Amino acid sequence: YTHTHTHTHILIFLTASLIGMCTYILIFLMASLIRMYVYYTHTHRHILIFLMASLIGTDSGIGHELAKYLDSLGFTVFAGVLSATGPGAKSLKETCSERLSILQLDITISKREEFELWAVINNAGILGFIADGELLPMSSYKQCMDVNFFGPVEISKMFLPLLRKSKGRIINVSSLAGGIPMPRFAAYGASKAALSMFSGVMRQELSMWGIKVAVLHPSGFKTSIGGNPEDWEKEEQMILGSLAPDVKNDYGEDYIHNLRMFLGEMSSVCSSDLSPVFSDVLHALLAERPKGLYTPGKNSYTFLLVFCYFPLWFYDFFMSKIMGNPHMPHALRTAERKKQVIH
């Protein structure tokens, strides 16, 4: 009896294991089939990406790398640039498949009607010089708004008729600086905040058409948007030349010069791994229910939580410790020395 009982238990165990293994394999195969269906259903749709690679003469920005990534997955990509003969556009032509096309920003209505458009990704952006808001000339504010906000708005409106037909997607790449106030990001942050708010409103309004709108707030990624030391030198000279004498005297040229150190430090702690951004963009493109907000990057979501749920005085203190400028303006240094002499 004991021997028969043992064999029965072994048989039950083996049967249960076999059923479990078959169930696991079946689930795995079903998941694979679903992924294959999603892949082959969506990757042959047309994706329009707007980037600034040709403007800044580089091939290392998020938009540029994103175009190559989506091309490698089999998407039909239209990379919208300011100059189809620029170095960024040339690099894309050399490294991507024939599915990727370079388009000028002046796309005509007739060209728009030639294909079914699934998604528009607005990634074009400029950072400018990182400086106190008072120091930035109005031209910097206007340029940031033109490229970072008005550009995506115009592109989105241009292609909404096609997106309504396909019930497609709009994906806007904003920034963490567009979700929380950050010192020395007055022009850039304001333009990205406008883009984030526009994205939220469009998400609500376009839902009745079946269009999904998502916005990304990436943080801490090393791209070409920050420029290089030569660019910083030009920006610094432009700022010094635009300041009123009293403002220049109060801040001091050394204070403005030291702002370049912040740009270098910021670049040194950023990650060159853009895979978190790519992963979120892919989810926004293919998910049945994409998120309205994605926060790729180290501590991006943490910063948003601190800003939203803690008192503002704590948030300001928090940011002063992380992004505070150790160099004081000339007028404040002078006043501090006078206090020390008196005491």
UniProtKB/TrEMBL annotation:
An annotated Gene Ontology molecular function: estradiol 17-beta-dehydrogenase [NAD(P)+] activity
Protein family (similarity comment): Belongs to the short-chain dehydrogenases/reductases (SDR) family.
UniProt cross-references to InterPro entries, sorted A to Z: NAD(P)-bd_dom_sf, Sc_DH/Rdtase_CS, SDR_fam
Name recorded for this polypeptide: Hydroxysteroid 17-beta dehydrogenase 2
Taxonomy, superkingdom: Eukaryota
Record key words, sorted: Membrane, Oxidoreductase, Transmembrane, Transmembrane helix
PANTHER family, per database record: 17-BETA-HYDROXYSTEROID DEHYDROGENASE TYPE 2, SHORT-CHAIN DEHYDROGENASE/REDUCTASE FAMILY 9C
Lineage, highest ranks first: Eukaryota, Metazoa, Chordata, Craniata, Vertebrata
Transmembrane segments: 12-34, 300-318
GO biological process: steroid metabolic process
Organism (species): Pseudonaja textilis (Eastern brown snake)
Originating gene: HSD17B2
